[in-house]
Amino acid sequence: MRAGQVACPVCEQNLPPDFAEAGQFLPCPTCLESVRVFAFPALHRVATGETALPALESDDASCFYHPAKQAVVACDNCGRFLCALCDIEISGNHRCPGCLEAGKRKGKLETVENRRVLYDGLALTLAIAPILIWPLTLLTAPAAIFVVIRYWRRPLSILPRTRIRFVIAFLIALAQVCGWALLIYFIFARARSAA
Q: What is the pTM for the complete model shown?
């Protein structure tokens, strides 16, 4: 099997490349078994052709992690020599795997995103949770609508996600706001008719 290909789990024949993008069950062309492929983005990554250079001469610097490979750059954080395989470039800075891991653990790398606020989930919670205590919807429904409008274009999650939670939250919150408007209208209409 070549890189970038996925094999059928039943007949072990290579599946066409469009199976990875389909997102649904498709019949295997060989055995006709229904197969659904979930592929990591690395499956479609084009190889850069960059390989580590061997340390050919004794006076060449070698990689800290791979002593048999020639160093091509030094880590901007700790100064360790790195081969092309170990060099991790983030926003123009070269990092070694150790510094990258330490930076992620300590939270000192601003450019590596480990978490994200799920505003669509927040909007849905603001719209649904207060229904049990319905007077709170007077405050939370407009807040949910604000969150939907304000954060619609923000990235949703590190993992692929749709905006369906935003849509559901907006519709529920809009229904709550309309319900409050009708309630206030009927209260004022009843007060006028009583006067």
A: 0.43
